[in-house]
Structures are given as C-alpha cells and as structure tokens.
Write a structure and sequence with these properties.
The protein is of the alpha+beta class and 335 residues long. Helices cover 24% and strands 29% of the residues.
C-alpha cells in the first residue's frame, strides 16, 4: 500500500482544487484492504475517494484519504440469457464498459464516458442517455465500517432511485464497496429512449452494434461536456429536479418550452435548461463559470478555490428557486 504524508490533492480531484490532507493511502489489492482495517484507519477522520470525479474540496481535509485503485474484471457465471461480470471497485468505469463491449455484452454501453470508478457507480446510481446502472447491477460487495465485516447486497436491497441508493443514505459513510457484479445481456438489444441518441442511430437499422452506440454516446458527450483531464469540473454538478404533475402543470402555464421527461414519482425537468434560462451561461466569476455548451456543468478554469465554487453554485440555486419555485440540488459531494 502506498502512502503519502500531507500531499497536495490537486491531482486527485477533477475540479483540480489545491488543498491537502494529513495522509493519502492508495489501496491496490485485497491485502491492502486488510491492512487498512488492521491499522484501524476508520477509527479516525477519513475520506474515501476514487478518481475524485464527484467531489468538491472546500478546505484541507484533517484526516486520512483512502484512494481505491484495485483492478480486476472477470466473468463469474452465465445462463441462457445473461452473463455475470465481477469487477473490482478500483477499475475505471469506462474501461469496464469497454470490456462489456469487447465481449458483446449488452446493457452498459449508454453509460460509457461517465467519469469515476466501478466502486462509486452504485452509490450514485449513475445514469445517462436513458440508462441507469441499477438496471445492470446484480450485487454489490464490500465491508462495513469501521471494523470490516463483509457484506453482499443484491439489487433489490440497494434501494436504488434517481442518483440515489442505500449507500448514499441509510449506509452513508458506513460501507466500503470493493466489488460489483453486473448482469449483462447476451441477446442484441439497445436502450434508445433518449431522443438525440436515437436520432443519431436510426440510420444504422439492423446493423446497429454496441460499438456504434458507444461511439455515438461519446460524440454527444464530448460535444456538450468538457474533458475533465483538461478542464477542472466534476461532470454534471446538479441533479435534474423531479416535480409533481401539479407543479409541472403550473410551470407549463407560465413557461411553455420546458424540457421534461416522465419519472416514477412525477415529472423530471432539465436542470441545465433552468440554469441557462436564468442567465448563468453569461456569468463568470473569477475562474468559475458554467460550461458554455452545458449549463449543468460548473468549471474551474484555473485556480479557483473550493469556497468560490460553493458561492457560485449557491447563487445558481437561489436564482432558479426565485424564477421557477424549484430548488435544484448538487449531485457533487461537498467536503
């Protein structure tokens, strides 16, 4: 296990916020996981990160940061319709998606390009272009904190919801996810409910392939979202709000161009559109602004401090609340 004392975290968070922690531990294998528990790291202030792609540091962290970097993807079972693939929590998410494409397994292709690690995906129930990871997760494996007792949660025990799960609520800061088992399809099928994706793929007809879907998803993403290796950000900063049908009818009477989608408990609106309609695409404060082609994304153009990003996003929340009577919420974890 690698450890660094008092490192800068600028290269360990995709917002590129320059702050420090007392100690950074990089966990690379199961033996390292055992050692972390033996050292009783979780009995003191700690924070777990992967690639730092869903976190905003606002100050130095006065404790130990554990960075998961374990590797391994293997097919563990299959039946007539499905293949079960077990992936280590430290695997890069897009690398895992590429594995499924190379093995002609269906279900993950729409999620390519989402930053982060396999171990983070169940917490947030990541999703994009009409798909959510809950649709392909079979089970989640890991250890309870602080002592390290092992657990296995099957899909229906994870309490998945829109950008939410039991790991983000009831078990927040009480679990270390080390592996995820995915259930993927053998038969050719695609999720094309997202309008722009379907329009871009309609010409392929029966010749549509996993590679073509993934390539198209990446082209759409890259046309709207910044490259997090070059521009400081954490991808989508806000959740898309879900409102009741009554509230949507009220809003539609005043604003007839609202982008909207059906949701299990109401109507989902596009947070990026609400932010743009409030005029934030033209607003830059120091090194902080929304991204020119996607107002859902807040970026650090250089040397922004974490508190400056906080002040900026709080003003956005207030302006959307005042105009639409809706409170949008950050998707990013604030530390």
């Amino acid at each position: 296990m690698k450890n660094i004392i008092s490192p800068s975290l600028k290269d360990y968070n995709t917002f590129h916020i320059d702050c420090r922690c007392k100690e950074l531990l990089t966990v690379e294998n199961d033996q390292d996981i055992d050692e972390v528990f033996q050292r009783k790291v979780f009995h003191q202030p700690y924070l777990m990160i992967g690639e730092g792609s869903n976190i905003l540091f606002t100050k130095d962290f006065e404790g130990t940061i554990i960075r998961l970097a374990t590797k391994g993807i293997e097919i563990v079972n299959e039946d007539d319709e499905s293949v079960y693939v077990r992936a280590a929590g430290g695997e890069n998410w897009s690398d895992f998606v590429r594995f499924t494409i190379e093995h002609e397994l269906y279900g993950a292709e729409n999620l390519i390009g989402i930053p982060g690690l396999v171990g983070s995906c169940p917490v947030q129930n990541i999703g994009a272009y009409g798909s959510e990871v809950k649709d392909i997760i079979y089970q989640v494996e890991g250890h309870y904190l602080p002592e390290g007792e092992p657990f296995v949660f099957y899909n229906d025990e994870c309490e998945f919801a829109y950008r939410d799960s039991i790991f983000k609520n009831k078990l927040k800061d009480r679990c270390w996810i080390t592996h995820v088992v995915f259930k993927l399809g053998k038969e050719k099928h695609f999720q094309l409910s997202y309008k722009q994706l379907a329009e871009n793929l309609v010409s392929f007809g029966s010749e549509l392939t996993l590679e073509k879907v993934a390539d198209t998803v990446l082209k759409i993403r890259n046309s709207k979202l910044p490259d997090i290796t070059k521009v400081g950000c954490a991808g989508s900063f806000f959740k898309n709000p879900v409102v009741s049908e009554t509230k949507f009818a009220e809003l539609s009477a005043k604003f007839d161009d609202l982008v909207h989608y059906p949701a299990p408990n109401g109507i989902k609106l596009a947070a990026g559109q609400l932010i743009e309609k409030c005029g934030w695409k033209e607003v830059r404060k120091g090194d902080v602004s929304v991204y020119p082609t996607q107002a859902l994304v807040i970026v650090n153009w250089g040397n922004a401090k974490g508190f400056e990003v906080v002040e900026y996003y709080q003003e956005i929340i207030q302006s959307v609340q005042e105009k639409y009577g809706i409170r949008i919420e950050p998707e990013v974890r604030i530390v």
